[in-house]
Design brief:
By secondary structure, the protein is α/β, with parallel strands linked by helices. It has five helices and eight strands, in the order E-H-E-E-E-H-E-E-E-E-H-H-H. The strands form two sheets. The chain has a five-stranded mixed β-sheet, sandwiched between helices. It has a three-stranded mixed β-sheet with strand order 3-4-6. Helix 1 links the parallel strand 1 and strand 2 (35-37). Helix 1 (17-31) packs across helix 3. The longest helix is centred in the last third of the chain and has 19 residues, at 118-136. The protein starts with 6 loop residues before the first strand and ends with a helix. The mean pLDDT is 92. The structure holds zinc ion (2 copies). Residues 131, 135, 141, 151 line the site of one zinc ion.
């Protein structure tokens, strides 16, 4: 079956509508595709690790894949919970490389600020969602610190990069989309 080009933005739990909306708008703009907001997981309690008091993002991706409708091309979930993978203290998000699913956490994107600037906060979430979707479209990390596919260790890194693919990653992305349309 030919993929429809539909990308789902999937809030988990009590993610504010304006956050899901801002992410969906930005994803539609960057990937030039139809985007819908569809909750798929009521919570991610199944991914909880009591020793770390965090949630294992890889488990979230597996569960998301089971629940993702067949007709959609990619799904990106948004959670407030703090995510990790075993080799790292935390992650902003994770995706199945060249797969269907991605997840981002808002947890670490608003720390260190006295008052949360909503516009900045939403910008960061959108950037990380697009970064993880980039991985789902088979893109690897990019050395260009301004490229959306740059690997960010800190929030300052996230703020520095632009919400767009560099020329090189843009070409890889359109190749990956073309390959899906065949
Ligand atoms: Zn990455
Ligand atoms: Zn790049």
């Amino acid at each position: 079956m030919k993929p429809s080009g539909l990308i789902l933005v999937s809030p988990v739990g009590d993610i504010a509508d304006d956050i899901s909306g801002a992410v969906a708008d930005k994803v539609a703009e960057v990937f030039k595709t139809e985007v819908r907001i569809t909750p798929l997981l009521p919570d991610i309690a199944f991914a909880y690790d009591a020793d770390r008091n965090q949630y294992w993002s890889t488990r979230v991706l597996e569960e998301l894949e089971k629940n993702a409708p067949e007709h959609c091309l990619k799904v990106v979930a948004i959670t407030k919970k703090d995510l990790f993978i075993p080799i790292l203290t935390h992650v902003y998000g994770e995706a199945q490389l060249g797969g269907k699913t991605a997840v981002v956490s808002t947890c670490r994107l608003n720390t260190g600020l006295d008052t949360i600037d909503m516009a900045d906060f939403m910008d960061r979430i959108a950037k990380e969602a697009i970064h993880e979707l980039g991985h789902a479209f088979d893109l690897r990390h990019c050395e260009d610190p301004l490229c959306i596919m740059h690997y960010c260790r800190t929030m300052a890194d996230v703020d520095r990069k632009l919400n767009q693919f560099c020329r090189y990653c843009g070409i890889l992305l359109s190749d990956s989309i073309k390959a899906l349309e065949k």
